C-alpha cells in the first residue's frame, strides 16, 4: 500500500513532538484537564486494490504547570490486492502469494494440481481479473499455498494481501525555566511480519517575548522484518525462492532543527531542516521484477514452466535531506490560510516537491469548512526500472542466472510520478468542549517515467509500465475536553 506506507522514513512521533514544540508560542496557555480525540479512517484504492479501516484514539492530560502526557493508539486493518512488481504483459502470468513459497509455482503456468492433493479455484473480486488456486498438500499437512493468475494486459496484483497493525505511542511535554520546553516520547508498532520501536526527544527555546522559537529533535527507530517464507536472496529466481535468513533489521536516525517566527499578529512562519539516515534491510521481500528479452517474457532456466522473475534489491543504507517551509495567515476574523512547501532529496536519486494548502473557513460558531489541495512530484530512484532486460541487466549461461546490476526495483513508490490530492473537511463544534468532523479526500497519481523501449509485437509492447494509483478516503472525528 502506498499512501498508508507502513515503513515511513521519517518518524511520525518525532514530527509530532517537534511540531508541538514549534507551535508552542502561538497557543494560548492550555487549560488544565483532559482532551480525547478519536477518529475512524476508511481508505480505499481503486481497481480492487488495498482497502483499510483505521480507528485511532489520542488522549492528552494537561496539568496546571502546562506540562502534558499524551497517549495515542492506532489500529489498521488492511485487505485487498497489492502490486507484486512484475510487468503487465499480453500473456497470462501466474504467481504465488506471500502466504506460500514461490517455489510452489512450478508448472503453475499450466495450472496443474499436485499428485495426491486437491485444489479449488475462486475469483476474489470483480475488480481484480485473477483466478486464485489454493493447493492443499494432504501428505505433509502443512496448510496451503496460494497461486493466482493475472489476465493478459492487467497489472499483476497479489489479491491475498491482508494485514493488521497496532501502534501505541506515548509522549511527555514539560515547560522548563528560561523559556525552554522539552518533549520525550516513544512508540511501538507491530504487524504480521514487521515490528518497530522508536524513542524520541525534542527541545525548544523561546526568544523575543515568545515571538521566536528554536527547536531541535532526535528520533531513534529500530525495525525488524520477518517476511512470510523468509528473506529472499536479492536478484535471484522468484520460482526457486532461495532465502538468506528468516528476519533482518533496519535502524533509522532522524534529526530535525526548526525555527518558528511570529511576523505580525496575522502571520506566522516556520522553517525546518531534517536529516534521516537509515541502515540495514531496505528491500521489499514481496516485490519482484520481470526479466524480458526484447520485450518478451522468458522461461526460468531453473524452473521449467515458469516465466523468469527476480526478487528486487535495494541499497542497505539511505540518507534523506528535507527542507520544509510553512506559513499561516489569519484572514478577517476566524479564517486561516495554511500554505507549506517541502523539498526532499536522497542518495538514491529521488528528489521530491510538495505544495500543500488548507483554508479554515469559519462560517458560524457551529460550522466550518476546510478545503484542502496538495501537489506532489518526485524523480525516480537511480535503480528504478519497470523490468530487467536480458543481456543488459541479466545474463543466463548454462542455465545459471547472473544479475549484472547490484540494485533494481520496479516498486511504483520509487518511480517518477506526480500526484494530486483534493479534500474537504466539515467541522461541527457542538459546544466549547466538543466537536464533530467529517473529512473526504481523493488522490490520483500520474506516471512521469521515461518509457523503456521494447520490440514491436512483444509481450510488453503497448503495455503499461507504471501502476498508477488512485484512492479515496473518508474520516469521521470526534473531540471532547473536560
Structure description:
The structure is a single chain. This protein has 482 residues and is mostly beta strands. The chain is 2% helix and 56% strand. It contains one helix and 28 strands. It has one helix spanning 12-22; strands at residues 33-45, 51-62, 68-83, 93-96, 118-122, 130-136, 144-150, 157-175, 180-191, 194-207, 212-225, 231-232, 243-245, 248-264, 267-280, 288-293, 296-297, 309-311, 317-331, 335-346, 351-364, 367-378, 388-389, 394-397, 400-403, 417-429, 434-447, 470-481. The strands form five sheets. Strands 1-2-3-8-9-10-11-14-15-19-20-21-22-26-27-28 form a 16-stranded antiparallel beta barrel. A four-stranded antiparallel sheet has the order 4-7-6-5, with no helix packed on it. The radius of gyration is 25 Å and the shape is elongated. The two termini are 38 Å apart.
Concise description?
The protein has 482 residues and is an all-beta fold. The chain is built from 1 helix and 28 strands.
Major β-sheet annotation:
16 strands, antiparallel, barrel
Strand tally is: 28
The CA-CA distance between the termini, in Å, is: 38 Å
- Beta content comes to over 45%
Helicity level? under 10%
What is the H/E order? Answer: HEEEEEEEEEEEEEEEEEEEEEEEEEEEE
Number of DSSP helices?
A: 1
Q: Tell me the overall shape.
A: elongated
Low-confidence stretches: 1-29, 100-128, 133-144
Q: Spatial order of the strands in the main sheet?
A: 1-2-3-8-9-10-11-14-15-19-20-21-22-26-27-28
**Mean of pLDDT:** 87
Amino acid at each position: 500500500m502506498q499512501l498508508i506506507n507502513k515503513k515511513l522514513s521519517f518518524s511520525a512521533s518525532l514530527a509530532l513532538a517537534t511540531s508541538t514544540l514549534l507551535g508552542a508560542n502561538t497557543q494560548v496557555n492550555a487549560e488544565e484537564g483532559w482532551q480525547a480525540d478519536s477518529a475512524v479512517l476508511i481508505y480505499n484504492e481503486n481497481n480492487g486494490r488495498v482497502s483499510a479501516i483505521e480507528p485511532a484514539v489520542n488522549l492528552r492530560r494537561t496539568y496546571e504547570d502546562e506540562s502534558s502526557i499524551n497517549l495515542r493508539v492506532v489500529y489498521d486493518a488492511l485487505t485487498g490486492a497489492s502490486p507484486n512488481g512484475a510487468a503487465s504483459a499480453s500473456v497470462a502470468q501466474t504467481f504465488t502469494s506471500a502466504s506460500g513459497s514461490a517455489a510452489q509455482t512450478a508448472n503453475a503456468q499450466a495450472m496443474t494440481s499436485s499428485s495426491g492433493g486437491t485444489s479449488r479455484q475462486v475469483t476474489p473480486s470483480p475488480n481484480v481479473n485473477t483466478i486464485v488456486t489454493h493447493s492443499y498438500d494432504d501428505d505433509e499437512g502443512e496448510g496451503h499455498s496460494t497461486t493466482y493468475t493475472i489476465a493478459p494486459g492487467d497489472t499483476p496484483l497479489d489479491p491475498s494481501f491482508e494485514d493488521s497493525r497496532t501502534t501505541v505511542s506515548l509522549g511527555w511535554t514539560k515547560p522548563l525555566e528560561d523559556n525552554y520546553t522539552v518533549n520525550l516520547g516513544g512508540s511501538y508498532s507491530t504487524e504480521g511480519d514487521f515490528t518497530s520501536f522508536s524513542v524520541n526527544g525534542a527541545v525548544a527555546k523561546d526568544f523575543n517575548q515568545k515571538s521566536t522559537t528554536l527547536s531541535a529533535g532526535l528520533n531513534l527507530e529500530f525495525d525488524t522484518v520477518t517476511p512470510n517464507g523468509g528473506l529472499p536472496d536479492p536478484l535471484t529466481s522468484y520460482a526457486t525462492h532461495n532465502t538468506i535468513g528468516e528476519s533482518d533489521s533496519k535502524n533509522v536516525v532522524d534529526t530535525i532543527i526548526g525555527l518558528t517566527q511570529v511576523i505580525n499578529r496575522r502571520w506566522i512562519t516556520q522553517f525546518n531542516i531534517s536529516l534521516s539516515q537509515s541502515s540495514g534491510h531496505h528491500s521489499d521481500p514481496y516485490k519482484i521484477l520481470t526479466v524480458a528479452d526484447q520485450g518478451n517474457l522468458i522461461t526460468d532456466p531453473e524452473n521449467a514452466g515458469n516465466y523468469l522473475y527476480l526478487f528486487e534489491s535495494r541499497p542497505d543504507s539511505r540518507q534523506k535531506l528535507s527542507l520544509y517551509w510553512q506559513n499561516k495567515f489569519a484572514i478577517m476574523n476566524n479564517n486561516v490560510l495554511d500554505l507549506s512547501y517541502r523539498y526532499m532529496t536522497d542518495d538514491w536519486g529521488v528528489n521530491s516537491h510538495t505544495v500543500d494548502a488548507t483554508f479554515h473557513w469559519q462560517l458560524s460558531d457551529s460550522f466550518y469548512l476546510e478545503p484542502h489541495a496538495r501537489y506532489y512530484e518526485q524523480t525516480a530512484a537511480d535503480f528504478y526500472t519497470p523490468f530487467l532486460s536480458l543481456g543488459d541487466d541479466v545474463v543466463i549461461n548454462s542455465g545459471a542466472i547472473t544479475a549484472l546490476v547490484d540494485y533494481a526495483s520496479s516498486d511504483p513508490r520509487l518511480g517518477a510520478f506526480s500526484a494530486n490530492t483534493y479534500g474537504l473537511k466539515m467541522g461541527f463544534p457542538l459546544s466549547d468542549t466538543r466537536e464533530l468532523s467529517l473529512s473526504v479526500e481523493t488522490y490520483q497519481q500520474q506516471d512521469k517515467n521515461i518509457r523503456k523501449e521494447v520490440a514491436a509485437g512483444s509481450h510488453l509492447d503497448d503495455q503499461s509500465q507504471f501502476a498508477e494509483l488512485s484512492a479515496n478516503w473518508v474520516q469521521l472525528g470526534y473531540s471532547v475536553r473536560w
